[in-house]
Amino acid sequence: MELIFLGSGGGRWVTITQRLKTGGIVLKVKKDIQIHIDPGPGALVCAYENKISPLSTNAIFVTHCHPDHYNDAEILIEAMTKGMTKVRGVFAGSKSVVEGIEGIGPAVSSYHLSKVEKLFILEPEKKFIINGVEVSCLKAYHTDPTNVGLRLDFDRTLIYTSDTEYRDNIAELYKDADIIVFNVIRPRGERIRGHLCVNDVINILKEVKPKIAILNHFGMKMVDERFKEAKRVEKETGVRTISATDGLSLDLKELKIRGQLRF
Ligand SMILES: [Zn+2]
User: Fold this and answer.
1) Domain residue spans of the chain
2) Yes or no: domain 2-253 corresponds to CATH 3.60.15.10
3) Cα 131 to Cα 97: distance, rounded to the nearest angstrom
4) What is the pTM for the complete model shown?
5) Is 166 left (phi over 0), alpha (psi -120 to 50) or beta?
6) Which residues surround the ion ligand 1 when the cut-off is CB under 5 Å?
7) pLDDT-based confidence at residue 31 (cuts at 50, 70, 90)
8) Cα of 36 to ligand 1 centre, how many Å?
């Protein structure tokens, strides 16, 4: 069981400049379950760099219709379906990604979706099961109104907040998790619309206590501050907290980190 960060960057400027990579996250649960979440620009290349074969991916999730989350979805579907020669795998995307909503999306062509074995639209409170992994969609507050967070239950409970704004009751959504991956675009209390800042994460972790919290999806202002900010979160909340780096991997059984980890 492993969680691999193909990219720890997010937001427009980090993505355009590739100050940090934007390949999303890969969850490997068993030998035969490989889920690629939010494959932004470079996801295909990042997968190979991290010795992950996109041909072995059996599910692709895209939480919303912004390019730092969906950009490589189509080429990864092509890999998952063995070059579009087989009907294979799962694709799950927000309504904006799959169907398009007013002014946003769709992000994936009907041609690509035609080769996917199972298609799910991610909507808050919806649940489905893929090869024994229970997937629950969580409400998220973002500029794409159909965005969702994800809760994945297998031997562990993993939460991925996706991009969301802070709300007073938001910690409720993240309770009982072993691991929470927070998309946190800005340091300290520097809130911007539709995103969490580090102080928001601290507020959440005062209410819920995962075994480990991982800060991820950094905007420009977080690039040089992320390790220091992760330490501050840990100090103020008592929750073990690390900053994602490009290529970082978390052993989900032992909750041990492999790869670059700096403070
Ligand atoms: Zn977004």
Assistant:
1) 2-253
2) yes
3) 23
4) 0.97
5) beta
6) 66, 163
7) confident
8) 17
